[in-house]
Amino acid sequence: MSLKFQPLCDGTYTVSSGFGTRWGTFHCGLDLAAAHGIPIYSATDGIVIAAGPADGFGNWIWIDSQREHGVDLIYSHMEPEQIRVRPNERVHAGQLIAYVGSAGESTGPHCHFEVWTTPGRIGGKAIDPAPWLRGALDPSAITPTTPTKGGTAVGWYGDPTWLADVLRDEGLNVVEAPGWRDRGQGDFRNIWGVVCHHTGGSRTPATEIMYGTDALRGLLSQVHLAQDGTVTVCGVGVAWHAGLGEWPGLPEDDANYYTIGIEAANNGTEGWPPQQYWAYVKVCAAICRRLGYGADHVIAHKEWAGRKQGKWDPGSLDMHRFRTDIQNQIDRKNEGFLMALSDAKQEELYNLITKELGYRFQSRFKDEDGNQSDFRDSLVGFVLECDKKIEALDQWRRASEEREKAIESKLDAIAAALGHAA
C-alpha cells in the first residue's frame, strides 16, 4: 500500500466542521479551514477523475485511489486557477494538487475533504475522514529543508512524466527521444523549478545530453534545445546537471533531485538566435506553469554554481530580461490566447461573433401574395435551413421520378392493351 498524507500541512489549518449531521443536513466530509492560497496535497497515489466545476463545491478534484487504498477522495472549494492537476492524470501521495479557496457554497476559505469507500464516489459510502487520516504523514515531511541556505521545494513530487505534453501544448516543436520515459539517474523528489544551461557548442546533439560524455556518463539534462528551437525530451529521471551550488529555496549542493535541467545548444558568446531564445522562454514558462510557479523558479547555472564552480552559463543571457519574458509568457497563456491580441483586434472579433455570426437575420422570402416569411436565424442557422430544404427537395425529386416511372409504366400497359384490342 502506498503512503498516505494529510491534505494540508500541520500548522496551516484548523478543523472547522466535522463529519456527520450538521444544521439539519448530513456533512459528508471534513472542513479544513486555512488561509486563502495554502497548498493542498494529494493524500494518496491515484488517478484524477475530475478537476473543475462541481455543483455546490464551486470546483473540486476527485481522485480514484481504489487500487492503492480502496477509496475515492474529494477535495473542493478551490478557485479554477488554483487547480494544478487534470483529469486522467496520475498523482502521487504528497503531490501539490491545488490551493485553498472559497468557491461555491462556502463561508470562508477552506478545503472540504471527503473519503468514499469501494466502489467509489458513485455507489460507495462516505466515511469519516478523521479516523482514515490517522497516522497520515505531514506533506512538509517530504520537502527538503536546510537550516539557513535551503528551503522548501513544493510542486510536483516524482518524475515529470508530463514534460512532452506540456511543452507541446506551449506550441513548441517537440521530439521525444527513444526511451526517454525510462532514462535517468533515479527518481525526482519535489520539483522546485528549472536550471538553465548552455552546452558550450552550437551544434551539440541531443544524444550527448541523453547519454553523457567520457567525462560524465548518464543523463545530463532532461531537455535539449537546438538552435532552430526544436525541443528534445531526453529523459524523465534525475540528471547530472547542477553540481555544487546554492540558491534560496533549494538544498545546498543538491539541486539535481529538485530541478529540471535545460541544455541549449549554444556557445554562450555569439548571442541567441530568436527562434532558440523564444523557444527557451516557452520551455521554462510551460514547466513553471505546470508546477504552479512563477518565473522566479527559473535560475541560471551561473546563478546556482557561479561561486562554487565558476560556471558562467548560459552565457550572454540577461536573466532579468529572460525571467521577465518567461513571466509574460506564463501570464499570457494563463489569460488565454485573446490576451495576445490588440484591443482593436479583440473588438473586431467580438463584433464578428455578436453582430454577424450570432445575429438572427430576418428572411427576405415573400410568398406569391407578398407576405414576408417570419423565419429568422443566424448565418449558421440559414445554412442549416438551406441544407434541410435541399434535402427535402432532393427527396421530392426522387419521389417525383418514381411517380413518373409508374405513370410511364401504366401508359405503356394501356398502349399495349389498345394494340391487342385493335
List keywords for this structure.
422 residues; Glucose Permease (Domain IIA); Lysozyme-like; metalloendopeptidase activity; extended; N-acetylmuramoyl-L-alanine amidase domain-containing protein; Dup_hybrid_motif; alpha+beta; six-stranded mixed sheet; Cell_wall_metabolism_enzyme; 3 domains
Brief account:
By secondary structure, the chain is an alpha+beta fold. It contains nine helices and 22 strands.
CATH H-level homologous superfamily name of the largest domain = Peptidoglycan recognition protein-like
The DSSP helix count reads: 9
> Residue ranges: pLDDT <50 for 5 or more in a row?
143-154
Give the helix proportion (percent range).
25-40%
Rounded to the nearest angstrom, the distance between the terminal CA atoms is 100 Å
Global shape = extended
How can the largest sheet be summarized? 8 strands, antiparallel
CATH class of the largest domain, named: Alpha Beta
The tally of beta strands, per DSSP, is 22
How large, in whole angstroms, is the Cα Rg? 31 Å
What's the CATH topology name of the largest domain?
Lysozyme-like
Q: Supply the CATH architecture of the largest domain.
A: 3-Layer(aba) Sandwich
Write down the overall mean pLDDT.
88
Count of separate structural domains: 3
The secondary structure category is alpha+beta
Strand content: 15-25%
